[in-house]
From TrEMBL, chains A, B:
Keyword Magnesium: yes
Residues spanning the membrane: 60-81, 101-118, 311-335, 341-363
Gene Ontology terms: cellular component: membrane
Topology with respect to the bilayer: Multi-pass membrane protein
Needed co-factor(s): Mg(2+)
Subcellular location: Membrane
Gene name tied to this protein: Smpd2
Protein name per UniProt: Sphingomyelin phosphodiesterase 2
């Protein structure tokens, strides 16, 4: 929902508000609410039904994440992903959103819920996905953040637009490393788009060409959950919207909404927190992810090098011009007309290139550091996995 | 320890390594190790005594944080502060460091330790501290991060350069909101600089003029701790270095090292985690911090506005020039000589101002969002504090 840019934006925010009022959920996790004014309007409208809400602020535009709840929000925390695309990819714009993880803590009948909402970097080209290493770093940070912050929670819930297909390495990493289970595969009853797809061709706001290899659509929005300590969660029902909103000519959004009914039960005996995937398999997933991060690291190192070289060349050009100008001023080239216009244009060009290349060099230096850091964390995780009896 | 810039840097890193080998600590938390090469050298040197270590990578230069440990590091997590000074304050340089919190988890005799190491934004002018709101946001994020990630820990330890005096609002907020206790005030035995100061005039690397109002020096480096669950921590001894290293003519660093001997004991009955400050007092501290964050917010909003206006003016100037150039091209001012040099210089100036002002505007937009987010989190904390019976 980008103000002034998204098609029929106002109308759709209103439709979403109406639907949330009518369905009367316990908890609503929204992504891509880019405008705080839309959030405020929704908050005013939904106040009666969802008295508690929170908007996560970050980046230039905002994180787009917000939460509406029937239960009091006891605490919140925001974690901004360390990598999130490139500032110069203006047409993709992910960098400006300050993509983050939002955490809220609520308590229902004495059960502590850690609720996470997030939105990972988009995938613009599946065949040649330049953002895969960034999205993998995000998936890893998401898994690590959940593991480290959920140790006192009874139930962990994650909802959001993960921009990953169910079989992608990032989602296997996230599920394996946190032990979260996928509501779609666990649901006892399902109703909605075939295969649980959330980006479908039968939605007038999706880009049809991107979905050509997937005639049914793709499933990239998830509700994941797990119970730690002595609780059990079951997904009784999972539903998705199916394109056009009931009685309207447009859908609520380009993505289909995912709605889960969860049943939470106290168990007799406490079961220790365990990982979701058998450990030898998990080690393979971490290794696979680490390889992809390594590919990204080498690309980032190349870009750091080439932008650094560009900056040095621009600096040399400027120095050369300074020497030439000095030559003219000291009268070495007296008599010859000085080409003022071309000279100043060239200097201008050199300064612009110097500034841009320096900025990019700094950016790619940060990128290299974060990819190295993630690779090392993954190596440590592998060591811990291998050392376990 | 900035390579090529810091005075007698090589010698001092070596001195620090020698001292760590000789003293044979259990755990060492270092800040301002800006060069990864220094870390690698230390790691090679200390490998026998401290077989486990971790360097936290972030920002352009690095976080400067690293850890050496006699015990296996089971897990790590990095949290980068959302605000950390201004990129254009090159002389202060904090922004480039990617100031962060490093978390490592270790286990000693079955006791789980969450160890945090951090370095907050420096204070350059105490009378007119432009960075106070940023440092307060960092103190708040530090407190929130510790609270959310330490729920399964038996013992929490925080060490680092907090750049705050013991009575400052940031340190009161941190201690009050996490329940951490100050090793200096709790120590049964103390040995070192008077008042536990860690930045003292009697150290040849400190800036004497900054310490003029504090003849004894200031205490800005801390070891804080608490035990959750059924454990008790006591600080048996606290020591600081005292300027010049033994037998040398230079100190190890511009800050004095803080060394604590902690005694950890299992307690008969579990005591619930509690806050460090009586709650009505804590509400006052949060209110005081929120007021300061509000002051920073208004300053950031003013800067966002003025940089935005500057960008618009530069754009208007460029448009005006374009109209003038069109006028010349279409022959409206035929006959008059066109001032090529001044024209291109002016265009160059306008473009540079436009680029810089736009960049700054985006930066201050992020700053406003983060300050608003922190203010709101603090408001929520106040509500929770007030609602408690």
């Amino acid at each position: 929902a980008i103000r002034y840019l998204s098609k029929r934006h106002q109308e759709r925010v209103q439709l979403i508000g109406d639907m949330l009022l009518q369905e009367d959920f316990d908890l609503v996790l929204l992504q891509e609410v880019w405008s705080e004014r839309d959030y405020s309007n929704l908050k005013a409208k939904l106040g009666g039904c969802y008295p508690f809400s929170h908007y996560f602020r970050s980046g230039v535009i905002g994180s787009g994440l917000c939460v509406f709840s029937r239960f009091a929000i006891l605490d919140t925390l925001l974690y901004q992903y360390s990598l999130n695309g490139y500032p110069y990819m203006l047409q993709h714009g992910d960098w400006f959103c300050g993509k983050s993880i939002g955490l809220i803590i609520i308590k229902i009948s004495g059960i502590v819920f850690n609720i996470y909402v997030t939105h990972l970097h988009a995938e613009y080209c599946r065949e040649k996905d330049a953002y895969l290493p960034h999205r993998l770093v995000q998936a890893w940070e998401l898994a690590q953040f959940i593991r480290h912050t959920s140790k006192a929670a009874d139930v962990v819930l994650l909802g959001g637009d993960l921009n990953m297909h169910p079989e992608d390495v990032g989602i296997r990493l996230l599920r394996g490393w946190t032990g979260l289970r996928d509501a779609f595969t666990e649901a006892m009853h399902f109703e909605g788009c075939e295969d649980g797809c959330t980006l479908i061709p039968n939605n007038c706001f999706t880009v049809k060409t991107e979905l050509l290899p997937f005639p049914l659509g793709i499933r990239i929005d998830y509700i994941l959950y797990k119970a730690v300590s002595s609780f059990m969660v079951k997904c009784e029902e999972l539903k998705t919207t199916t394109g056009t909103a009931p009685g309207m000519d447009i859908p609520f959004s380009d993505h289909e909404a995912v709605m889960a009914t969860l049943h939470i039960r106290r168990q007799g005996q406490a079961v220790g927190a365990n990982l979701g995937t058998a450990e030898p398999m998990l080690a393979d997933v971490v290794t696979e992810a680490r390889t992809e991060v390594g590919v990204g690291l080498r690309a980032a190192q190349r870009q750091r090098y080439s932008t650094g070289r560009m900056a040095v060349l621009a600096l040399l050009l400027l120095l050369l011009q300074a020497v030439a100008a000095l030559g003219v001023l000291t009268g070495l080239a007296a008599g010859k007309p000085f080409p003022t216009l071309s000279f100043s244009l060239l200097a201008f060009l050199a300064i612009v290139v110097l500034l841009l290349a320096t900025g990019l060099h700094l950016f790619h230096t940060i990128e290299v550091k974060m990819l190295q850091g993630t690779e090392e964390q993954m190596r440590m995780a592998l060591r811990v996995l291998q050392e376990r009896p």
